[in-house]
Design goal:
Layout: E1 2-6, H1 10-22, E2 26-30, H2 33-40, E3 47-50, E4 53-54, E5 57-58, H3 59-68, E6 75-79, H4 84-92, E7 97-100, H5 105-120, E8 127-129, E9 132-135, E10 140-143, E11 146-148, H6 152-162, E12 169-170, H7 171-179, H8 190-206, E13 210-215, E14 219-224
Parallel strand pairs: 1-2, 1-3, 3-6, 6-7
Antiparallel strand pairs: 4-5, 8-9, 9-10, 10-11, 12-14, 13-14
Domain Response regulatory: 2-116
DNA-binding region: 124-224
InterPro entries: CheY-like_superfamily (IPR011006), OmpR/PhoB-type_DNA-bd (IPR001867), Sig_transdc_resp-reg_receiver (IPR001789), WalR-like (IPR039420), WH-like_DNA-bd_sf (IPR036388)
């Protein structure tokens, strides 16, 4: 899962990034309004942590533009301004939660998991597709109730595709979602092909009734078979 941290305080931003990376999230950052605006409308993120008080603009304006463009994002506002007006404005513009600074990292992690459960897991702790069950809190995958051993990137690819089952996912989009935005500098996608080949083999061996289908010239689609 990929998270964008929009926060101008470098020390706090680094602390948040390190804590999220320990939880195995792919994390990108934006230290100001301009950088955040560019990233939000070029790349895709599963969750956004947004400080509304930025040195070159107000984060609520980012929320407003996202709403105007119909781009639904999972947004948690993190701000030192703990005013009712800011909370109401952020929530009305589409934010999913509001966390006032200072906060405990454990609470931030819990809020992120809660937002993702609501929007990608139908409120459930686990994700099910066919006879495959993913346990995001423990990074476990089961086929017909039996654990299968996946490497970290294999797991992240499966998690990404399950959350977008039956949708065509371009190779570039998948790479950015699992490896981060810097992947757009890669010369080729051989590293993706290798991971998907291994993942397919493990799913088939375990008796999974889902398949990662290649759409040649475009990307991949996870389907039931």
């Amino acid at each position: 899962m990929k998270i964008l941290v929009i926060e101008d305080n470098a020390d706090l931003r680094d602390i948040i990034v390190r804590s999220l990376e320990k939880e195995r999230y792919v994390v990108e950052t934006a230290p100001d309004y301009a950088t955040a605006h560019t990233k939000l409308f070029i790349y895709e993120y599963d969750c956004i942590l947004l400080d509304i008080m930025l040195p070159d603009g107000n984060g609520l304006n980012l929320m407003r533009e996202l709403a105007e463009r119909g781009k639904r994002k999972n947004v948690i506002i993190i701000s030192a301004k703990d005013s009712i007006d800011d909370k109401v404005a952020g929530l009305e513009l589409g934010a999913d939660d509001y966390l006032a600074k200072p906060f405990h990292l454990a609470e931030l992690h819990a809020r992120i998991r809660s937002v993702m459960r609501r929007h990608t897991q139908n409120g459930e702790n686990n994700i099910k597709f066919g006879n495959v069950t993913i346990h995001p809190d423990t990074f476990k995958v089961e086929v017909n109730g039996q654990d299968i051993d996946l490497g970290r990137k294999e797991y992240e690819i499966l998690h990404y595709l399950v959350n977008r089952a039956n949708r065509l996912i371009e190779k570039q989009t998948l790479a950015e979602g699992v490896w981060g935005d810097d992947i757009d500098q890669a010369d080729n996608f051989d590293f993706i092909y290798a991971q998907i080949k291994n993942l397919r083999k493990k799913l088939k061996t375990a008796g999974a009734d889902i398949e990662i289908k290649t759409i040649y010239g475009f990307g991949y689609k996870l389907i039931k078979v």
